[in-house]
Design brief:
Length: 137
């Protein structure tokens, strides 16, 4: 079993789609081993996305991620990282395959409903940013 980190972003939460996304997560065979509803501060969003600091989209991204509640999760499944990324779809919802979460719930690249780790090292950092070991069941 592998673990990955996932976010239901503020746009999806604001639109009332968090429950639908959670339902798909369970339908696709993931186990949710950690889940929190958060309202990130700008500083927390900047810390989480520090790898993108200095890039043209950094301020827009961190403003968006601190614009409203989100749900952060740790998902577990065989090949969880790849499986979650396939379920999310391409970063640009217009380019995402039919049936993916971003195609169904995202509106554009900057507001694409979900986030997911892209590698085991990224997942480890992202999980540790939001969860202590005692919170993962």
């Amino acid at each position: 079993m592998e673990r990955t980190f996932a976010i239901i972003k503020p746009d999806a939460f604001r639109a009332g789609n968090a429950g639908k996304i959670l339902a798909r997560i369970y339908e696709e065979g993931f186990t949710v081993v950690g889940l929190k509803k958060l309202y990130l501060s700008k500083i927390e969003a900047e810390g989480f996305y520090a790898v993108h600091q200095g890039k043209p989209f950094f301020d827009e991204l961190t403003d968006f991620m601190s614009s409203g509640p989100c749900i952060v999760m740790v998902l577990e499944a065989d090949n969880a990282i790849v499986k979650w990324r396939q379920l999310m779809g391409a970063t640009d919802p217009k380019q995402a395959d039919e049936g993916t979460l971003r195609r169904q719930f995202g509106t554009f690249v900057g507001e694409n409903a979900t986030h997911g780790s892209d590698a085991p090292e990224t997942a480890e950092f992202e999980i540790g940013y939001f969860f202590s070991g005692l919170e993962l069941l």
